[in-house]
Amino acid sequence: xxxxxxxxxxxxxxxxxxxxxxxxxxxxxxxxxxxxxxxxxxxxxxxxxxxxxxxxxxxxxxxxxxxxxxxxxxxxxxxxxxxxxxxxxxxxxxxxxxxxxxxxxxxxxxxxxxxxxxx
Length: 119
Hints:
This protein is mainly α and 119 residues long. 55% of the residues lie in helices and 3% in strands.
Protein backbone atom coordinates (compact mmCIF):
# COMPACT_ATOMS: atom_id res chain seq x y z
CA UNK A 1 0.00 0.00 0.00
CA UNK A 2 2.85 2.35 0.87
CA UNK A 3 4.48 1.64 -2.50
CA UNK A 4 1.27 2.54 -4.29
CA UNK A 5 1.01 5.86 -2.46
CA UNK A 6 4.66 6.73 -3.09
CA UNK A 7 4.36 5.78 -6.76
CA UNK A 8 1.16 7.81 -7.15
CA UNK A 9 2.70 10.87 -5.53
CA UNK A 10 5.81 10.54 -7.70
CA UNK A 11 3.74 10.36 -10.88
CA UNK A 12 1.63 13.32 -9.79
CA UNK A 13 4.74 15.39 -9.02
CA UNK A 14 6.33 14.58 -12.36
CA UNK A 15 3.16 15.40 -14.28
CA UNK A 16 2.79 18.75 -12.49
CA UNK A 17 6.43 19.63 -13.13
CA UNK A 18 6.09 18.77 -16.81
CA UNK A 19 2.83 20.71 -17.20
CA UNK A 20 4.24 23.78 -15.44
CA UNK A 21 7.42 23.76 -17.51
CA UNK A 22 5.49 23.58 -20.78
CA UNK A 23 3.04 26.29 -19.73
CA UNK A 24 5.83 28.65 -18.64
CA UNK A 25 7.77 28.50 -21.91
CA UNK A 26 8.35 31.93 -23.48
CA UNK A 27 6.85 32.76 -26.83
CA UNK A 28 8.73 31.63 -29.89
CA UNK A 29 8.43 34.95 -31.72
CA UNK A 30 11.03 36.71 -29.56
CA UNK A 31 14.59 35.64 -29.04
CA UNK A 32 15.60 35.47 -25.38
CA UNK A 33 17.66 38.65 -25.67
CA UNK A 34 18.44 40.84 -28.66
CA UNK A 35 21.03 43.60 -28.60
CA UNK A 36 19.84 47.00 -29.82
CA UNK A 37 22.32 49.74 -30.60
CA UNK A 38 21.50 53.11 -29.05
CA UNK A 39 22.90 56.61 -29.41
CA UNK A 40 24.81 56.23 -26.13
CA UNK A 41 27.02 53.49 -27.66
CA UNK A 42 25.71 51.08 -25.05
CA UNK A 43 23.68 48.12 -26.21
CA UNK A 44 20.37 47.52 -24.46
CA UNK A 45 18.50 44.25 -24.53
CA UNK A 46 14.94 43.45 -25.43
CA UNK A 47 13.25 41.48 -22.70
CA UNK A 48 10.71 38.97 -23.99
CA UNK A 49 7.09 39.74 -23.04
CA UNK A 50 6.99 36.58 -20.93
CA UNK A 51 10.18 37.56 -19.12
CA UNK A 52 8.94 41.11 -18.52
CA UNK A 53 5.67 39.94 -16.97
CA UNK A 54 7.46 37.26 -14.93
CA UNK A 55 10.00 39.72 -13.57
CA UNK A 56 7.29 42.21 -12.72
CA UNK A 57 5.33 39.49 -10.91
CA UNK A 58 8.45 38.62 -8.91
CA UNK A 59 8.75 42.23 -7.76
CA UNK A 60 11.69 43.35 -9.89
CA UNK A 61 9.99 46.68 -10.68
CA UNK A 62 8.92 47.70 -7.18
CA UNK A 63 11.14 50.77 -7.34
CA UNK A 64 9.21 51.82 -10.44
CA UNK A 65 5.87 51.47 -8.64
CA UNK A 66 4.87 47.99 -9.85
CA UNK A 67 3.94 45.74 -6.90
CA UNK A 68 4.82 42.06 -6.94
CA UNK A 69 3.06 38.75 -6.41
CA UNK A 70 -0.60 38.90 -5.32
CA UNK A 71 -0.78 42.68 -5.59
CA UNK A 72 0.58 42.45 -9.12
CA UNK A 73 -2.17 40.05 -10.16
CA UNK A 74 -4.95 42.08 -8.55
CA UNK A 75 -3.65 45.34 -10.03
CA UNK A 76 -3.35 43.65 -13.42
CA UNK A 77 -6.92 42.34 -13.22
CA UNK A 78 -8.25 45.76 -12.22
CA UNK A 79 -6.43 47.53 -15.05
CA UNK A 80 -3.99 49.51 -12.88
CA UNK A 81 -1.12 47.58 -14.47
CA UNK A 82 -1.13 47.41 -18.25
CA UNK A 83 1.37 46.48 -20.92
CA UNK A 84 2.33 50.13 -21.28
CA UNK A 85 2.95 50.57 -17.56
CA UNK A 86 5.17 47.47 -17.53
CA UNK A 87 7.14 48.64 -20.56
CA UNK A 88 7.57 52.08 -18.98
CA UNK A 89 8.78 50.49 -15.73
CA UNK A 90 11.38 48.48 -17.65
CA UNK A 91 12.45 51.60 -19.53
CA UNK A 92 12.77 53.52 -16.25
CA UNK A 93 14.88 50.65 -14.88
CA UNK A 94 17.12 51.00 -17.97
CA UNK A 95 16.33 47.44 -19.04
CA UNK A 96 14.33 48.15 -22.17
CA UNK A 97 14.63 50.48 -25.13
CA UNK A 98 12.13 53.38 -25.30
CA UNK A 99 11.18 52.29 -28.84
CA UNK A 100 9.29 49.33 -27.37
CA UNK A 101 6.45 51.62 -26.24
CA UNK A 102 5.28 51.80 -29.86
CA UNK A 103 5.71 48.11 -30.75
CA UNK A 104 2.07 46.98 -30.93
CA UNK A 105 2.98 43.30 -31.28
CA UNK A 106 5.18 43.44 -28.17
CA UNK A 107 2.49 45.25 -26.17
CA UNK A 108 -0.16 42.80 -27.35
CA UNK A 109 1.96 39.84 -26.23
CA UNK A 110 2.43 41.43 -22.80
CA UNK A 111 -1.34 41.97 -22.49
CA UNK A 112 -1.88 38.32 -23.39
CA UNK A 113 0.50 37.21 -20.63
CA UNK A 114 -1.17 39.55 -18.14
CA UNK A 115 -4.57 38.14 -19.10
CA UNK A 116 -3.39 34.56 -18.71
CA UNK A 117 -2.02 35.28 -15.21
CA UNK A 118 -5.41 36.56 -14.08
CA UNK A 119 -7.21 33.29 -14.84
